[in-house]
Task: structure prediction
Amino acid sequence: MDSFKEQIVRKNLSQREKMSKYLLMVASVALALACFLFVVGTPYMMLGVLFAGLALFGGYQLTTRMDIEYEYIFTNGEVDVDKIIAQRSRKRLVTFRCASCTAFGKADDTFEEDSDSALVVATARDAELNDYYAVFTHKSLGKTTVIFTPEAEMLTLIVKALPAQIRRDAVKLLDEIDSEEDEE
Result:
């Protein structure tokens, strides 16, 4: 039987990213206003209006590029991780087979990143959600670690597709998470 699940996770902006987004909006409006005011009453007024419009459009494009979502697609033991920018463009970050994972677990305070490993971070950055990691060998990246935020149903499908030893450890992890949710 075929297994298929897709999930979209919106990346939460950090305080620094929120401030950058706000400053970009303010700067683009200020630039547009300056372009328009400096040419009022001159023969170059149409040019000023054009530059003001370009400043506003450029500011809009830059601020919306900060709106990032990650899509996880599980298809018969294979996970695709895509990055969606401003709901306009999509980029495949990585694809891996769950059966080729050499490690899988919760990316919490005890998680240590391997310095020899390529790192792909595709998380929601939400303190209320759990992040997980998967380590595998990718054909072009070599040893790779993916950190992502799957929901319970996606996580269950991934754990079922892991190699036996890793699956046993992951099932224990799932049981711990279920018990934590029951306590809440």
